[in-house]
Amino acid sequence: MKVGSLFAGIGGIELGFEQSGFKTIWANEIDKGACTTYRYNFSDVKLFEEDIRKLDVLKLKYVDVLTAGFPCQPFSVCGNKKGFADERGNLFFEIMRIVDGIHPPIIFLENVANLTDHDNGRTFNTIHNELISRDYFIRYLVADACDYGMPQHRTRTYIVAFTSQDMCDRFNFPEKCELKEQIFDIIDKSKKSDERYYLRHGTYQYEKMLSAIKDENQIYRFSDYGIQASKNGISFTLKANMGTWRDRIPIIKDDYGIRKITPYEALALLGFPKEFRFPDIPLNSAYKQCGNSVVVPVIRRIAEEIKTVMLD
């Protein structure tokens, strides 16, 4: 069961599919830092490091599933919400160009929750019409990661499209499951981190955060509205601006002080396996890559359902 990936990022979608028995054949990503991390972890995958608009479809081998976590900022409530009027929003039609070239039996798309409501539903209607005009049958789900076993509020729209109506009819998105872990079941507060992550005593950030931390079992961060705190041991959404605004990196109080979470702890809150590693890249790039990624266990469970209808 072969997978090709567009807007691959650091490979979170591929990880979910590979954990379900799929094999990634090729991938496309434009971000240099993400490509460095991708190659470090997927050395056997043919990676096309280039603008998707320049990607030659004739170079792409046939795959059973085409995946794409296409740019979300044009549709996000935290972005500019320009949708298809945004150059990045228009990249959706590049996915359709690739679809026209390789005709994959199954398409898997991931984007922000607001995709279904953006522009009063017209954006999602356009996506729907582009797929059905190519004889695809679609199913979609808007799901929060914390309803599928991960202690992070990360609500995303997942679209699965099939050329086979029978497969579409038999496909079911995974059922919700009980959340059995909280933030500090994943982040070990008893383990001392590198000194560079700790806020220094007496600084403005340290004093503000010290007064804000009322519950040491929660995670915190500075926001435009003051200091934001998680609730019920479930992290708020990890955002890509962790890599561009240093004060947006989530903060915890561990047994040694008040500090920022590390990129590996961010990966853990996204369900990445421990063997996934960052190469020697700038710290801000690693944070950005985490914030732009996906929750791997949610992808894995959807991929398992796709596998079921493929093999049944």
Automatic annotation (TrEMBL):
Catalytic activity as recorded in UniProt: a 2'-deoxycytidine in DNA + S-adenosyl-L-methionine = a 5-methyl-2'-deoxycytidine in DNA + S-adenosyl-L-homocysteine + H(+)
Molecular functions (GO terms): DNA (cytosine-5-)-methyltransferase activity
Cited SUPFAM superfamilies: S-adenosyl-L-methionine-dependent methyltransferases
One of the GO BP terms on file: methylation
Active site: C72
CDD domains linked: Cyt_C5_DNA_methylase
Keyword Nucleus included in the entry's annotation: no
Gene3D superfamilies xrefs: DNA Methylase, subunit A, domain 2, Vaccinia Virus protein VP39
Keyword Cell cycle included in the entry's annotation: no
Keywords recorded for this protein, A-Z: Methyltransferase, Restriction system, S-adenosyl-L-methionine, Transferase
Enzyme Commission no: 2.1.1.37
Similarity annotation: Belongs to the class I-like SAM-binding methyltransferase superfamily. C5-methyltransferase family.
NCBIfam families: dcm (TIGR00675)
PANTHER family found in the cross-reference section: TRNA (CYTOSINE(38)-C(5))-METHYLTRANSFERASE
UniProt-recorded name of the protein: Cytosine-specific methyltransferase
Source species: Qingrenia yutianensis
